[in-house]
Amino acid sequence: MISGREDPFPAVAVRDLIGIVRAMYAAAKLSGAGRAExxxxxxxxxxxxxxxxxxxxxxxxxxxASAAWKRAEEAALRAGDLVDxxxxxxxLMHAARARIAGKAVGEGKKKASAR
Length: 115
What we know:
The chain is an all-alpha fold and about 120 residues long. Helices cover about 70% and strands about 0% of the residues.
């Protein structure tokens, strides 16, 4: 028996979390995070995107839909592990704003260090 859910897959929430994780990656890169930390963040984003893609390909109450939910839930937990109560949101906002303005992550770092 498939352990499906009555509720539709939370695609909008998953897309929102992907955006947050992308901002986290950009902020981490701006702050000079190491390769391992960037890869950890990237894996969470990839898993969220994979869950979203799988959910879009799968019908309701299918093994694929169940797997998409599981993958999204596990990735969301890991996304939560990337931050704690002391993690400031300001670097995320700066990184997101730089992306919206069309500036590369490296450009933002140069401007920040010039201040």
